[in-house]
Design a protein that fits this description.
By secondary structure, the protein is α+β, with helices and mostly antiparallel strands. The protein is built from four helices and eleven strands.
């Protein structure tokens, strides 16, 4: 896999905050649910069954009468239809609506040598530099021109690659849900070795919520792309 060079003046990394992002919500009709999303389930004729639940790491939810249902990677319309089928054996008129209350997967995580490590919202779109700025900018001890992007591959393994920031160049790549952006310290000689050790040892205990269960399960299978 070839490295992609992402280019922008490194001075932008020291901005205290990112430019305001457009708070557009994902298209509810096409959006596919992810672990950590919170959905509201409402019954027209059986309000006693109304519920609000969060998708577990396996994408499943648990509801009254029917028990387990897999909602991950399905639209709210798909889930509503499935619920009406399942509840048809339990209630007379299973008219159901499903709405997303919060989009847990619309976040990336910025960590390492930044002022405020943590999750950043991707709603409205965000690139690597904006994400670092949202996290308060790079510390004086950080290696500002060599960020590391960690992304889960199709086989479930983590892939890490270097983002080199220089003046001028093509548009920056947009971050994806559950991407991990690491700002390494200045005093390292091998960025690839640092990333490997960071993910295997330090990372799982620092992550929160949905990011922790995703990366805990694959921390022993990290594929660090040569830099």
């Amino acid at each position: 896999m070839r490295l992609t060079a992402l280019c922008l003046s490194t001075s932008l990394l020291f901005a205290s905050c990112a430019a305001a992002q457009t708070a557009d919500q994902p298209d509810a009709g096409r959006y596919k649910l992810n672990p950590g999303d919170v959905i509201s389930v409402r019954f027209f004729f059986n309000p006693e069954l109304n519920d609000e639940t969060q998708l577990r790491p396996d994408g499943d939810i648990s509801l009254q009468l029917i028990g387990e249902l897999h909602a991950g990677d399905k639209t709210v319309s798909d889930v509503a239809q499935e619920l009406e089928k399942r509840y048809a054996t339990e209630i007379r008129t299973p008219r159901v609506t499903v709405q997303v209350k919060s989009y847990a997967a619309q976040k990336a995580y910025v960590t390492g040598e930044v002022m405020r490590p943590g999750a950043v919202s991707l709603i409205g779109g965000m690139d690597a530099v904006s994400a670092v700025a949202e996290a308060g900018g790079v510390r004086q001890t950080g290696k500002a021109h060599s960020l590391v992007l960690v992304r889960k591959g199709p086989d479930g393994k983590l892939l890490a690659r270097k983002l080199t920031l220089v003046a001028g160049g093509p548009p920056l790549e947009r971050l994806r849900p559950f991407d991990l952006l690491i700002v390494p310290p200045r005093k390292i000689t091998r960025v690839d070795r640092f990333v490997d050790e960071y993910i295997r040892q330090a990372l799982p205990g620092n992550l929160q919520g949905g990011f922790q269960y995703l990366y805990n399960r694959t921390a022993s299978a990290v594929s660090v792309i040569p830099f």
